[in-house]
Amino acid sequence: MLRESLQYLYEQAPCGYIFTLPDGTIARVNQTFLEWTGYERRELVSNTRFPDLLTRPSRMFYENQYAPLLRMQGFVKGVTLDLLRKDQSSLPVLLNSVQRTDAAGRPLLVASTIFDATDRRRYERELLLERRKAEELAAIVAFSSDAILSASPKGVVQSVNSGGERLFGSPAARIIGVKLRELLAAEGGTAEWDRIEQELREGRPVLAELAAVRPNGGRVEVSAALTPLVGLLGEVGRISAVVRDISERREAERLQQEFLAMVSHEIRHPLTAIKGYAQLMQSRGTYSERAVDTIVEQARRMERLIDDLMVASQLEAQRLDLRLVPTELVEEVRTAVQQMPFEAHPVRLDAPSEPVPVLADPQRLGQVFANLLSNAAKYSPAGSEIAVRITVEGARARVAVTDRGVGIPAEALPHLFTRFYRVEDTAGQATGLGLGLYLSRRLAEAHGGGIDVESEPGAGSTFTVALPLSP
Ligand code: ADP
């Protein structure tokens, strides 16, 4: 009875038993081992060497390391190897072996127990994957350009990434231990922070526009996502804060706001004049040449403004739409001069008698001259002359517009063709969007030419457009 029980235990044990001769030939195996590997007992016993039941890498390891170690110290414990089943699939196992010797110390038999290591393998692999995932996340946090902080439930910073060091202008050691409410100023002050903390305590995330406070007192506009990490019992364990610098976006919004206000102003001005003169004629019931002239002139001014805005938006979208056709330059310049309201300025046009052919989009080229002429008028005193000179030099035509106005300080010259730039000293003298010169240069360049400026403060300026002659 006992013998049978022991036999049963041996055969059906939750582990494999295997006995091998010193040369590795299998002498005995239990049922469990047979079930795991799919072999019949007779296929293995006396017919197969144990190493031949291993995958290639495992066999090499067994022959070169495991077996010598076993001979040397008499036992080996807890080594993982891959068994090869009869159907050639592999089974990870944990192998423990003991060597039996005779009285003279010669090896007789090796007894091994084998445990299925599939679960353990899977567990190890999952652990490894989890660790890799955690490392990846840590790398994302470390290299994020956003500031990422974690804080205690009371809002005291416990860790901060390098993005946070950059944003707050302090090393991590100076940020850790400080309260979030001191690092991030709220426009609504203490009351707003009390409200934010209340929300967080109740487990709700908060999205707020705040200001990051730097040690020198400087402030950076930020958007902050504050998230309470709620535990199983509903308690707030930690607060995570992702803080992003939005100062550039805010600045762009402010510029856009300012720009819209200026555009409205620029449109309103001619519109008021048009309406005023039209109403005057309406109420008097008479035709006035002066009124009609003004209406046409102001309508042209609005048209120029709208053309400028359109080209600006095309440039912004990098889709400037030019329709180049053979064009006579002198004629274009003459038209541009005629369309300007120059009552206040005598204009002298100096042009060669023969035609100057260029390849151009007449409307866009007209815009360049209109801008230069209108600037010459805007930034020079009434009564002073404006000279327009067309010349041909080699393969280029040049149109120079010279005024005797306020001129431009040398330090402003490099910025003159930048979008929205206006010279501070003289900007108050006339309204404008600071777009004209920027557009004019880009348009001249799109025609294969360019614009240059020479100026002497107090004496006047010359803007010269160069264009390639059409062959
Ligand atoms: P704005 O709409 O302000 O006239 P522009 O781009 O045409 O914009 O010109 C940019 C700035 O360059 C102007 O604000 C002005 O300060 C300066 N400027 C342009 N043309 C002249 C000029 N002929 N004389 C003096 N200053 C000029």
Key traits:
alpha+beta, 6-stranded antiparallel sheet, 471 residues, 18 strands, elongated, binds adenosine-5'-diphosphate
Task: Tell me what the structure shows.
There is one protein chain. The chain has 15 helices and 18 strands. Helix 10 (247-284) packs antiparallel against helix 11. The chain has helices at residues 2-12, 31-37, 41-44, 56-73, 118-143, 162-168, 172-175, 180-183, 189-201, 247-284, 289-316, 329-338, 362-378, 424-427, 436-446, and strands at residues 16-20, 26-29, 75-84, 90-101, 107-116, 147-151, 157-160, 184-185, 206-213, 219-230, 236-245, 325-328, 347-350, 357-360, 386-393, 396-403, 450-456, 460-468. The chain has 471 residues and is of the alpha+beta class. 25% of the residues are buried. The longest helix has 38 residues, at 247-284. The strands form 4 sheets. The chain has a 6-stranded antiparallel sheet. Strands 2-1-5-4-3 form a 5-stranded antiparallel sheet, sandwiched between helices. Bound molecules: adenosine-5'-diphosphate.
Bound molecules: adenosine-5'-diphosphate
Q: How is the biggest beta sheet arranged?
A: 6 strands, antiparallel
The total of beta strands comes to 18
Neighbour order of strands in the largest sheet: 7-6-11-10-9-8
Poorly predicted runs: none
Provide the structure class.
alpha+beta
Number of helices: 15
Helix content: 40-55%
On the 0 to 100 scale, the average pLDDT is: 93
Q: Distance between termini?
A: 117 Å
Overall 3D form: elongated
User: Beta-sheet strand percentage?
Assistant: 25-35%
Give the radius of gyration. 44 Å
